[in-house]
Structures are given as C-alpha cells and as structure tokens.
Amino acid sequence: MLCATSEQDASTQLRIIESCTKNDRVKINSKKNEILLINKKSKELNLELFNEKISEKQTIKHLGIERQDRNTPNVVNRISTARATMYSLMGAGLHGINGVNPLISYKLWRTFVIPRMLYEGAAMKMKMADGSTAVLRRNRPGTKAEMWSKWSDIAYEEMDNTLAVQQYIQQAINKDVNDVEGILNQPDGVDEGVWKYEHLRQFCMELNGLSVKLQAECNPETCTQMTATEQWIFLCAAHKTPKECPAIDYTRHTLDGAACLLNSNKYFPSRVSIKESSVAKLGSVCRRVYRIFSHAYFHHRTLFDEYENETNLCKRFTIFVTKYNLMSKENLIVPILDDQELIEGESEA
Ligand SMILES: [Zn+2]
Ligand SMILES: [Zn+2]
C-alpha cells in the first residue's frame, strides 16, 4: 500500500516502484492495483504504473477495513455486521428471558458483538454528518424540543426489526397526528392481527396521557362511579368479582389490566405473529378502555377537548374500532365523527 498526499507525491512513489522493480527484475501487474482518492475534489487523476492507468475505486478493503473515499466508517455496514453477529449467537442462547444467564449474555455481547461493530470506527474519525443513509433514531442529551424525535422517515420495508409495526405507527403519528386515515392505513405485508394489536398497544399508551390529565379533576368524591350517560354504570373488571370503582380508579385499573393482557407471555408471546384466539381478545379491551373516553367526554368536557385537539385520539380510536369491527356502533357514544350521529339515528329508527 502506498499513501500519498498529493498527485505529485503519488506519481513520484510510483516511479520509485518502477525503478525498484527494474533493479530486482520483478514485475508488478498494474491491472491488479487500485487507487482510492480520499476527499476527492472533482479532479481527474491520471496515475500510471508501467504506462497503464491504475483503476480508481470508491471503496477498498485493506487489512479487513473497508476504506471509503470520504474516509469515514460505513455505519450501515457496521450495524448490520453487529446484528448478524447477534443473530448468529442466538442459537447459543443469547436471547430473551429463556436464554442463557444475563451475565453470560452480556459477556458474549461485549466480547463478540461490540468489537465487530466498532472495528472500523477505531481506525477512523467517527463522523455522522456525512450524508450516509443510516437514520439514527436517538434523542441525544441536549436535543432541542423542536428537534425531539425529528429523525427522517423510514419506509416500512426498510424497518428490519421485530418492532417494525410499532415503529411505523409511531412514525406516522409523529409525522402528522391529524392524518388519522394515514395512521390507520395498513401497509402491505403487515399481518392484520399484528396491526390491530400494535394499534391497541399504542392507544393504551396514549390513553395514559388522558388519564394523567383526568387525575387533576376526576376524583373519587365527585365521580364515585364510572359513568358516561345516565344509562350505564360500568363495573370494574380488574377485581375477582367486578365492582363499582370510582371513575378515576376504574381508569387506572382498566389501563393496568389492558397493559397486563397485551404484554402477557401467554396470549401475546410474539409481536411478529399473533394467534387468532388472542386477536379475539382485543375487542373486549377496546370496549373497556373506550369508557375512559366516554367518561371524559360527558363529565370532563374541557379536558377531553384539550386532549383531543392535541392528539385526535378518540377520533382515531373510533375509526379504528369501526374499521376492524372491534366494537358495535351502539357502544360508540362519543359523537366524534361527522357521520356518527346519523348512524345512531338510523339504528334508533
Ligand atoms: Zn370523572
Ligand atoms: Zn377497579
């Protein structure tokens, strides 16, 4: 390998090689040599060895390190190498809660995965602002509020992890919370069960935001029961025998219960494929958590409107359960859609 800082320098070194080979009576095949120009400034170089042009390359592998013309590490490649290393160790038990002891997992990870990921980085100056295609989804310390989670979008096909559907949904919400149809638009190749499951997870997470707001004014003394209209008092299903919890307790118990079910290893062991019998459980979760919307709407309207303006959550939920037939129309008592009252009117007639 020759290193040169200028064309003249390189040319001189090549002449030295030519002269040395003549003395030693060996020949170097100029076709087998390559040249890599680092930080090239659109200048045509014409370096020759034995009167033959040396071919120019964008990347050259030297001592196992892939050098690029910008002299920065290939971040995408490093990440995928690390991931491949991870996967190859899964057979040996480097996975989840039923794998090897976490301490051993950590040791394996530190010994095999990290070095392979950082290999090139040690030899080169780390720099991310090189226009590489890797999208790093990180909120670093010191991130400004307006830049929070503002990384560029990734297409669904390019999300290659087990949480891709959740990532895709959250990306759509981040992009435009008012584009309810867009958020609920199922991309090709997504299993419908997983799609429904991940959306419901997301709803429950965001409903926690509403329940935090509710805590400020919904207290057990004033809202002693979970009601919406005068018609029903909802019993809290979180207890051995369902009971009349105050509205705010009902809210907490129901969200906790939903989180328990949706994270249960028994019913939802995987987030890539979901059994039909488990998908069937989603309807009842929807029905229970919907009561949080209806209580907020009929009893804490200002608060409901505030939250709805920010998130469009109830609207999205209503369209979601209607689209996938998870709740019957009579139960959707919050008039959030333009054509919803019309539907109610029809069913009463
Ligand atoms: Zn209340
Ligand atoms: Zn309860």
TrEMBL record:
**SMART domains, sorted:** Mob1_phocein (SM01388)
Task: Enumerate the residues binding Zn(2+).
Answer: C218, C223, H295, H300
- Database matches in InterPro entries: MOB_kinase_act_fam, MOB_kinase_act_sf
| Single GO molecular function | kinase activity
Q: Which UniProt keywords apply?
A: Kinase, Metal-binding, Transferase, Zinc
Give the protein name, as stated in the record.
MOB-like protein phocein,MOB kinase activator-like 4
Question: To which species is this protein native?
Answer: Mytilus edulis
